[in-house]
Structures are given as structure tokens and as C-alpha cells.
Design brief:
By secondary structure, the protein is of the alpha/beta class. Helix content is about 45%, strand content about 15%.
């Protein structure tokens, strides 16, 4: 289970479909029951969790040995042209981090923002400035969570692999969430063993060997257009070469958590875990 530190852990984005109920507490119990290892708590429509419930979630996760992470609200744009929206985005991310800490979650995944009418360079600088302020606040408050900007699947969104790794190099205290399906949809490539290997080598080169020992990964099948990601698919219904992907992760000794975001995420997470341990 989640105490392992020498292998990848597999789990779901949100409460599994076959859980006895929709709450995170019931989801954690179900994750343990079916022998998965981790779960991402979805704050994607807002942080609607109280501190008392969060503490119960922390205790249940510790008892079940299920590693938790959090996905911050979708309504975050650290490059909004409106200062008020940028400040509101920072506050949503801070609230997510504070609640994640009470839940015992280690990582907070978020979507940094959109280019809009600004250049990629300007977008990078403004997002980096906002994140630097957030990291400083979290350090002052001694909140032990890691902010993880996610590689994004639409070309209108800030978050190519290169931008995400550069951001993590620039700001001490943040680490990436590598969504391999998003990278594939955004670039229209990165769907072979050699390409997966190149991505992993690039992560290690840019962020060091320690980043490979503490990865946070998202994966699903994906449908895409010339503009990038359109929707998530179950892995078996997509052309994503998950067998090659698992082999690359294994060969490069990647450790950490894998969160499955397929429509039937529980089924795909179990399949991936079984495949990983069969290699």
C-alpha cells in the first residue's frame, strides 16, 4: 500500500465509481478494499470541505495506508488580465493547500492559467511571480504540501512540458505534475517507448534524480484535435500506448504516484497496477 517507497503507487482521481458512497471517506475505504494505493481529492469545483471532515479524512487515510493528493479548483488563472481574478486564483490555491494539509495530502495539483492575448514569455513571468508569492506564504505558514503545476493538454493553456519544468527550476519548492496524456494530446506525439523515455530523461536532467523518486503523474486515454485535448477516454478505448509507457516508467526507476483520470478510473488504475507489477 501507500507506505511503499520503492515502487509506483496507483489510484484514482476522486472517489472510485464502485465506492459505497460519494464521500472521500468512503472512497478511501474502497481504495484500500480493492488494493489500490492512493486517491486524489477533487476540489475542482471549489473547496467545500470543513476542517472536521478533513481531519477524519486524514485519520482514515492513515489507517487505510492510502496516500492522498488534492486537485485545486479549475477556476485558477494566474495570468488573468484582471488583477482581481489573479488574486482570487491565488486565494483558491492557498485555500486548497491549507485544506490539503489538514487532510494529510502531500501534493496539490493545479492548472496554472491561459496565455490569453499575452506572449508565452510574459505569461511565464506573471505565473512565476504569482507562484513565488504563494510559496512564500506557505513557507511562512509552515504548510507541508507541494504545489504541482500540471502539464496541460490544450495549446491555449500555459503548461507545455518545457514550460512546466522551467517553472519548477525557477521556483524552489514546487514540483511538476506530469500528465502524459496531456503531453500527447498537446503535441500530437509522445506516444512510444522512446518518446516516453525522452520525457523521463528530460525530467531527470532538468530537475535532478530526486524528481524521479517523487513523481506525481496523471494518465488516461485521450481524444484530441489540432487544438489539443478534447476529452478523456478509457485507456483501452484510446490509442495511448500504456504498455510502452509502463515499461518506460519501470526502466527509468520512476517512483511516486500515478492518478488515473479515465472515465472508469478505478478499472484503469487496477489494470495499470497489475501491468506494472507484471513487468
Amino acid at each position: 500500500m501507500a507506505t511503499a517507497n520503492n515502487e509506483l503507487l496507483f489510484g484514482t482521481a476522486g472517489v472510485p465509481q464502485n465506492s459505497s458512497g460519494p464521500s472521500s471517506l468512503e472512497g478511501i475505504r474502497h481504495i484500500e478494499k480493492i488494493d489500490l494505493d492512493c486517491m486524489e481529492i477533487e476540489f475542482v469545483k471549489g473547496v467545500k470541505l470543513g476542517a472536521e471532515t478533513a481531519r477524519k479524512i486524514r485519520d482514515q487515510a492513515a489507517e487505510s495506508q492510502v496516500r492522498l493528493s488534492v486537485h485545486a479548483p479549475y477556476y485558477i488563472n494566474l495570468n488573468s488580465p484582471e488583477e482581481g481574478k489573479r488574486l482570487a486564483s491565488q486565494e483558491r490555491l492557498l485555500t486548497s493547500a491549507r485544506m490539503a494539509a489538514i487532510c494529510g495530502a502531500q501534493n496539490v495539483v493545479f492548472h496554472p492559467g491561459y496565455y490569453g492575448k499575452t506572449s508565452p514569455e510574459f505569461t511565464f513571468d506573471r505565473i512565476a511571480e504569482g507562484l513565488s508569492e504563494l510559496v512564500s506564504i506557505l513557507k511562512k505558514e509552515r504548510i507541508p504540501v507541494v504545489l504541482r503545476p500540471e502539464t496541460m493538454g490544450k495549446r491555449s493553456q500555459f503548461g507545455s512540458l518545457e514550460e512546466t519544468l522551467f517553472l519548477c527550476r525557477k521556483i524552489d519548492g514546487i514540483q511538476p505534475c506530469i500528465d502524459f496524456s496531456h503531453i500527447y494530446a498537446r503535441e500530437g506525439k509522445a506516444n512510444s517507448y522512446d518518446e516516453f523515455s525522452r520525457i523521463l530523461k528530460k525530467i531527470e536532467k532538468k530537475l535532478g534524480a530526486s524528481a524521479m523518486k517523487n513523481m506525481h503523474i496523471h494518465v488516461s486515454g485521450v481524444a484530441y484535435t489540432q487544438k489539443g485535448e478534447r476529452k478523456h477516454l478509457n485507456l483501452r478505448d484510446s490509442d495511448f500506448r500504456y504498455d510502452d509507457w509502463i515499461q518506460a516508467l519501470k526502466d527509468h526507476h520512476a517512483l511516486g504516484t500515478v492518478i488515473c483520470e479515465s472515465p472508469h478510473q478505478e478499472m484503469d488504475a487496477l489494470m495499470l497496477k497489475k501491468l506494472y507489477h507484471s513487468k
